[in-house]
Amino acid sequence: MRVEIQAVGSALDSVEVGPDESLLIGRDPQLDGMPSTLQGSELAVGQTEASPASSRTFALRRSPSVSANHLHVQRHGDTVHVTDLGSRNGSWLKLPARSRVELRTPERLSIRLALSATHDGGTAAPENADFSGPDDYAQGVTRSVEQWLRRIELPARVIAVDRGFNDDTRSMGRLALATDEDLLLVPQQTIEADWLDAVAHLERYAAEQNRLYLAQQDLRDAGLVIASEAMRKTVARVVGAAAAGAKTLLLLGPSGSGKEGLARCFHLNSGRAGAFIAKNCSVLNHELARSELFGAERGSFTGSIQRIVGAIEAAHEGTIFLDEIGELPATVQPMLLRFLDHGEFDRLGHRGAPAKADVRVVGATNKDIRSAAMNGEFRTDLWFRLSAHVVRVPGLTERFEDIAAYLQERSLPGGRSIYEALSANALELLREHPWQGNFRELRNLADRLSSDSPRARIDADVCRFALEEGALHPTRKATSLRAPTGTSVATPEDWAKLAELAALAFSEDHDQALPGTWDEVKQYVESYLKPLLLARLSGVDELGPREKVDLRTVAERLRADRGTASKQVERYFDRFVEQLKTNR
């Protein structure tokens, strides 16, 4: 067997290793300097005294990055054992096809020593996965991992399997998901140091995605709808702040948008053992606010017959949620600031040393608290203390996908969902509605529609009447949706034409006639065929410039997620507009 050896700054060396022979490789290899478990080669491979291995050394003196005793290669029977001896800079095998680390004796074995990685895991992490729940979580993470591996030029297959799957795919990495599934990482080229770096990076990424998935599931179980990209990004920011150990979080958004649910999400993901305590600052006057937040000693005010434990003390090692924090009385604001700065507070009527508590503080308001601070209506120093982590919570006007998802879960008396019964113009009416009451208003609308007599279709007039029963202002007349005027894609000829255009683009980009592997088929469908189908089905191909495309209308017309619509529209304009002009 010939062993080829190369190190940084060295030419390729090679040496023959005979049957039952071992080779110690290094900068200045010494057989008596090997670990005791490898001294006497029979201990390494289970040999007996009757068949001792012959040991030799091989020096790479021109390579200072190679350890003195770097690597041990031992041939015994029809196997080869390769052992890194704790070297400083690593050893990397160029594996023969279909070989594992314990190798069947190859004709040639290539080893590289002390080679640094060519990739650092990429300058950017994989994007957060796009998923709606447990059914498509693994697929969403798979897509993000595949895209990232392509971006850093590490070709690999990513396979989602059930937990406990007996891996016979020769994968070189396994990512555990929160849905009792695993992702197998199967490299499509010889692995090097950068592959192991990438796997470690992806293991951290999978852990982050699992936190996001579990956080979203907790919020869904609590009744919060998270179908829109805007809300998924909001949850990701809250979970990220909690994981980073943020001591304060400020949630800014309209009433009814889900701020308390997000505050609970922050608490659950902060790893805190203490309680979650919620207080509404808008119902607290000066004395009540001070005693409710910081506590009070017995007899500290008229009628106080026992000691009051304040919310901050009760939330020790946990989280306090101060809803409508913009309404906190001005006289109590400096007390909260002192607590945030020093972790100290005084109970009402207490004399002596201040008490201490370890509490995370989440504030929420629907006011423009920044302007309030600038106008002297809120302490500027408290604003700066609270605003270390600010997350804007979008209202329903920015979350039509959440409206649609909620209505898909609400049924009419006949069993059909409200969403399925709504006409296109009724859906457009809901999309243009201001939703000043956010989810409270949406729940009321669903109650009114579902209590009606069963109907096959809910048109715009019926929907407008139900909206106006609970709206503060008259609803706008729904904008009529433009039906696509181009060629329908209902006939086989139309589908064939689009498939032909997609195949032509794939061929031009990959310098091959057709996809040749399953991964290439998936890429052809996702990156070439889907953009053309979406553009034709939605009428985007007739709108002209990209600026004229309303993604919300496209997503609603096709009943697709807005993130999916946005991705495919971008692909269509980036790759196919000029090609379609040429073919028309």
CATH class of the largest domain: Alpha Beta
Poorly predicted runs are 40-52, 116-122, 478-488
CATH topology of the largest domain: Rossmann fold
Described by the principal axes of the CA atoms, the overall outline is flat
Structural class: alpha/beta
Intertermini distance: 62 Å
User: How many independent structural domains?
Assistant: 5
Look at the structure and name the CATH superfamily of the largest domain.
Answer: P-loop containing nucleotide triphosphate hydrolases
Placed side by side, the strands forming the largest sheet appear as: 4-3-5-6-8
Description of the molecule:
- With about 575 residues, the chain is α/β, with parallel strands linked by helices.
- The protein has 5 domains: about 1-115, Tumour Suppressor Smad4, CATH 2.60.200; about 135-220, no CATH class; about 230-390, Rossmann fold (3-Layer(aba) Sandwich); about 395-470, Helicase, Ruva Protein, domain 3 (Orthogonal Bundle), CATH 1.10.8.60; about 490-584, no CATH class.
- The chain has helices at about 40-45, 135-150, 195-220, 230-245, 260-270, 285-295, 310-315, 335-340, 370-375, 380-385, 400-410, 420, 425-430, 440-450, 460-470, 490-510, 520-540, 550-560, 560-575, 575-584, and strands at about 1-5, 15, 20-25, 55-60, 70-75, 80-85, 90-95, 105, 110-115, 155-160, 175, 180-185, 250, 275-280, 320-325, 345, 355, 360-365, 390.
- A 5-stranded mixed β-sheet has the order 4-3-5-6-8, with no helix packed on it. A 5-stranded parallel β-sheet has the order 14-15-18-13-19.
- β11 (about 175) and β12 (about 180-185) form a beta hairpin.
- Residues about 40-50, about 115-120 and about 480-490 have low confidence and may be disordered.
